[in-house]
Design goal:
Layout lengths: L5 H8 L2 H6 L18 H10 L1 E5 L5 E6 L3 H6 L13 E5 L12 E6 L3 E6 L1 H13 L5 E5 L15 E7 L3 H9 L11 E6 L2 E8 L6 E7 L3 H12 L4 E4 L1 H4 L2 H5 L16 H6 L5 H4 L2 E2 L32 H5 L8 E7 L1 H9 L22 E2 L1 E4 L5 E11 L4 E8 L8 E6 L17 E8 L5 H6 L10
Helix pairs in contact: 6-7
């Protein structure tokens, strides 16, 4: 009998790790937006030296949440405190399971009229929809799902466009669009500016480490707003950023985008797994990399490991509170950047041109991830496992291969470790995996954010916490 939900699918398969590691679904796709508008190298340089336009209209869900119990439901599903949250603000929203494992994260906006909008990947959207449907909450949720990964020429429409103007020249561009000085908007606060004769909602943000704004509005106005931004930025070196470069800004700024949602085990989550369909993100997603364990729980992470310790406040009841209170923050793994050895990365790239030599796992430029959730094994000189590399790519600004990783708390900055690149036994059955051999890469444990600009000038918070 065919499985009707995730729980049945897991029971039929028997080995969750094997199911996800051999999923035919490959890398997480950034849909609709052109791969490049100029070239990904120039687009990376622009967010450091001039300004960029990020188009975030398509790769994330929008979940609209309203109702008498909306705030209560949101508070009870996240480690974040809501004591400092009010209309006109946004928050990095981090929900955990009853066992204290991270489900995902995203941005929660508190809009006028007590409307909340969650913007992010599907695992959190699914968790919130489940809570709204099965919990004792008087709430209404409306999902505007991310655009299809492969629209195959069919029209694509969303409820909102969402753009970011970022980089050192962002503010002059924004004030030109506004027709004058913009009243100061505090970090992660929401205001309004003028663009093309319209009042546009704006969030003070800083993905590239410099002041910028995220703006949004009705999708049908998106083309007009986009063109106005491009016109205003023409004299300031602004470049639109394509899908290839977009995701790599996190290598410099330090956010790990896609930890595996920790929902595949535990009696307290069985009803949730029965709620999730066989076409859900959780059922079809993939794990890639050299880290292999028969226990899916070895892939779970807690908020401390992802750098969210400063968010966690035990001033309210939430799923996972008891489990997280029992942890010692000082002994948890910590988030770092791993800087790849140039000779070793060159060796991996050169193997493509050696017909008689070793063929190593293809390192795609500029983003080298080949699964939804990436887990490469990190070892010390003696071969002891000391961490996990979770997001890998190349920064033209730093002229370096970089990985975002979690490592044992006692590993110091400056330590040289080894990252095992590629999968065992020639590779799994994922569509993004060619036959290859594993190899070890020397990496240096480095600060997060890796970019000095982001490290020194980004607003204090999870991106600027020192390793």
């Amino acid at each position: 009998m065919s499985a009707k939900n995730l729980e049945e699918l897991l029971r039929q398969h028997g080995n969750t790790v094997d199911m996800l590691r051999n999923s035919r679904v490959g890398a997480y796709v950034y849909p609709v937006v052109a791969p490049e508008f100029s070239n990904w190298r120039s687009e990376q340089v622009a967010w450091r030296e001039t300004a960029v336009l990020y188009d975030q209209s398509h790769h994330m869900d929008n979940l609209f949440i309203r109702g008498r119990d909306a705030l209560k439901m949101l508070s009870e599903t996240t480690v974040n405190t809501f004591s400092n949250f009010n209309p006109g603000r946004a928050k990095q929203y981090v929900p955990t399971t009853p066992y204290g494992h991270v489900i995902g994260d995203g941005i929660l906006f508190w809009e006028p009229g007590d409307t909340f909008i969650y913007v992010g990947r599907a695992p959190v959207t699914n968790w919130l929809m489940y809570q709204a449907q099965t919990g004792k909450y008087d709430v209404e949720v409306v999902k505007d799902g991310r655009s299809p990964s492969r629209p195959m020429g069919k029209p694509v429409s969303r409820r909102l466009y969402r753009y970011q103007v970022q980089g050192p020249n962002a503010w002059p561009i924004l004030e030109k669009l506004n027709g004058g000085k913009i009243e100061p908007i505090k970090f992660f606060h929401i205001g309004e500016i003028n663009i093309a004769g319209r009042r546009v909602r704006a969030l003070r943000h800083g993905m590239a480490g410099a002041p910028g704004l995220e703006v949004w509005g009705p999708y049908e106005e998106g083309d007009e707003i986009r063109q106005a931004i491009l016109d205003a930025g023409a004299d300031h070196g602004l470049l639109p950023v394509g899908a290839r470069a977009y995701s790599t800004n996190t290598l410099e700024s330090g956010w790990i985008p896609s930890p595996l949602p920790g929902i595949y085990t535990g009696d307290k989550l069985e009803d949730y797994r029965r709620w999730l369909g066989i076409d859900s993100y959780e059922a079809t997603g993939s794990i890639g990399g050299s880290f292999v364990s028969d226990n899916i729980e070895d892939y779970y992470l807690n908020p401390y490991e992802l750098g969210y310790g400063s968010f966690m406040k035990f001033d309210h009841d939430f799923h996972g509170r008891e489990a997280l209170e029992a942890l010692d923050p000082a002994t948890q793994r910590k988030k770092v950047t791993l800087a790849w050895n140039r000779e070793d990365l060159t060796r991996v790239l050169a193997s493509m041109f050696e017909p008689e030599g070793h063929n190593y796992k293809y390192f795609d430029l500029p983003q080298a991830n080949y699964a939804f959730s990436n887990y490469d094994r990190v070892i010390d000189a003696g071969g002891r496992a000391v961490g996990l590399s979770m997001f890998t790519g190349y920064s033209y600004n730093e002229r370096s291969g970089l990985s975002l990783a979690v490592v044992d708390h006692e590993v110091p900055l400056g330590a040289e470790l080894r990252l095992v690149w590629g999968e065992e036994n020639g590779g799994t059955r994922k569509a993004t995996v060619e036959r290859h051999q594993q190899t070890e890469i020397r990496v240096v444990v480095s600060a997060i954010p890796y970019s000095e600009v982001a490290r020194e000038h980004y607003a204090t918070g999870w991106r600027t916490e020192r390793a």
